[in-house]
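We were asked to recover a plausible sequence for a given structure. The inputs and outputs are reproduced exactly as logged, with field labels preserved.

PROBLEM: sequence recovery
POSITIONS: 135
GIVEN STRUCTURE:
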């Protein structure tokens, strides 16, 4: 019985499979590309300056993965206009964001290493929707 248990535990190592109870956590252990895309929504003031919006304004959440998923789904399903309007409505009700007059839903191509270092302007931007914040 012990031999069977040990074999079952060590099988993922021998077979190269990634499974319970042993994992190599390939999502963290494999090399990733330096560039990545991020779908986001930003506000613009009357001078055209960009204002980063909170996760609560973007997706009614405090979880960045949920907000990103909401945005990516909207892009994939071509519903960014509707999502932009929803974000604009939430922004209009937010007293802290009275300077925001427009919302832009966009995809940014970023150098992820530079982003973490705080020196990463996007190398490419694709605008999916723009809408006004109506007060």
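RECOVERED SEQUENCE:
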């Amino acid at each position: 019985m012990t031999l069977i248990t040990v074999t079952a535990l060590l099988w993922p190592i021998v077979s190269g499979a990634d499974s319970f109870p042993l994992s190599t956590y390939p999502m963290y252990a494999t090399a990733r590309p330096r560039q990545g895309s991020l779908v986001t929504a930003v506000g613009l003031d009357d001078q055209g300056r960009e204002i980063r919006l909170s996760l609560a304004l973007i997706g009614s959440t405090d979880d960045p993965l949920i907000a990103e998923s909401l945005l990516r789904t909207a892009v994939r399903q071509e519903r960014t206009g509707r999502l932009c309007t929803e974000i604009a409505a939430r922004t209009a009700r937010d007293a802290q964001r009275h300077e925001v007059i427009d919302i832009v839903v966009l995809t940014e191509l970023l150098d992820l290493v530079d982003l973490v270092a705080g020196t990463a302007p996007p190398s490419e931007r694709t605008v999916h929707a723009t809408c006004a914040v109506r007060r």
